[in-house]
Amino acid sequence: MTGRSLAITSALLMILLGACNTEPAAEPSETAPVVTSLPPVTTTTTTTTTTTTTTTQPPVFDVTVTVESAAGATVADAIVTIGSEQATTAADGSVVFSGIPPATIAIHRLGWLPTEVAWDGEETMVTATLEPRVVRGIRVSSYVAADREQFDAILDLAARTSVNALVFDTKDESSYVLYESESEFAASIGSVNPMYDPGELIAAAKEAGLYTITRIVTFEDDIWVRERPDHKLAGTWIDPTIREGWEYPLQLAVEACELGFDEIQFDYVRFPAGQTAAVARANKPTTQEERVGAIGAFLAEARDRLHPLGCALSADIFAIVLSSADDQGIGQMPESVSAVVDAVSPMIYPSHYSDGWLGFPDPNDYPGPVVADALDSGFPRLAAHAQMRPWLQAFYYNGSQILAEISEAEQRGAGWILWNAGGNYLESWLPPAE
Asked: Helices 367-378 and 399-411 meet at what angle, rounded to 10?
């Protein structure tokens, strides 16, 4: 081989070896860990000789979201969602997201109306305002629920007035469960007495745009006491300090939520009052701390079971405790109850107040002032997240007296529910549709 041929051959070998030993392109450096991120965008460009891959990361930002009520009070336990990331506000109403791309901020809390806030990533502090769900409700008695014609009349009444919610009974003062319950305990004590199909009526109510609540009578139950005397405190009352006894009403609450009710309301969620209270004290003395603790713990357990299922929680309380410094012997105080529920419903019935209350010879003759005083006493004692939603008297009264009660609640931004044992209401008792 000549020198010229050798040189050419060597040059060709060098080119071939160089092509085989080309180093791969360096990988892009890792970004800092983020709470939420979009998938990286990958672009591939191909030519006749090379392929280049470029990976880019969408811009990410930090943001602190604070949730407040319209009055400026912070709202704890609100669920904040940005993109695919979700977190819950702390006691101060705030939550921090780190390293996330811009997206709409969605906020909801049971008992409140959901809201959304646009966020482009530029603001590091965002404050969102939640509006309360103001319930204007009437009770559907079991007799009305059992008669479709009467129930349809209730739907028609709601359509013509400001009523936006219905309260059903799934277990009432009779101690019976009023639908085909799957509760083994209810079946074992013989307390299932089906009167209506909740699924059918819930569907009709929701089609009409109404919020649905069910009331569960809790610790007074003569069937339960008779069949399980080991749970008895006094008279027809179950001992709220026996945790085993909680399972029955809690199972009914979960079942009602799964049936489709928006909210579960516990009634008679207390220790007995009056003469039965004296027997209870003799049978099992308790301190205020023990009573308040038992009722609060029961409601906290209910909240922990119902909230994950999407149901709000409320409790009925004696109206007198709004104006009292102690629990009146029944284990209810506005502070402790409102700390764990989404709404508190004091039963403000002027006919139940003693003569001389607020200086009135007969408080039943002064519906507006009695309701106003109770609400003004109670509002400052509620937890910031809890709604005030009194039961108002719709018996012994004419339309102007009932409207006087409703007016006092409306002026203070409170919801309301009318109590009439038979479930009978006149359009003249209710504010017109807005």
From this structure: 20
